[in-house]
Amino acid sequence: MSFFQRLFNKTTSTEYLVECPRCLGKGHVDLDDIKRLKNELKWIPGKCAYCNGVSKVKPEMITEVAANDAYLTINISKLERTLFINGNQAAIKRGEAHKEYVDLIIQNIKELYFVENLDIEEIAELYLQSIPEWDIKQKNELSSYIKKVIEHSSKSK
Q1: For residue 18, which phi and psi values (nearest 5 degrees)?
Q2: pLDDT digits (tens, 9 = 90+) for 36-63
Q3: Domain layout of the chain by residue ranges
């Protein structure tokens, strides 16, 4: 290890790293990982945001950041990821707010479908009312997500 690496406590060697608990060392999260971590309605397969696609993490990260934290996705910026991992309170609060927001959307979809008896198309149109200019692709993606929420909810009943 060079003088500067020791000085700034940065390692370039993977000998100090451990296998990523989110992707199990693959560098990407697949459907099995998503199911194992109970985030079926919150994540999609892709590059692992926990290890940033490198398959390994520092051991202390495992004790500081939960592998199944729904906020830590590839959709957040590099800066936000760093702040969140380093325990920045504002970033943690944004993560908690994100989790509450997603949980509220999921609960709202369930209520609209199972209680209010709206169909997938009606639920999608309800959500799209708040978007001034939406296209058919957005509607199809939203309808797919609504269907996924309903199917997941039906399985868990």
Answers
A1: -120, 165
A2: 999 999 999 999 999 999 999 999 999 9
A3: 1-87, 89-157
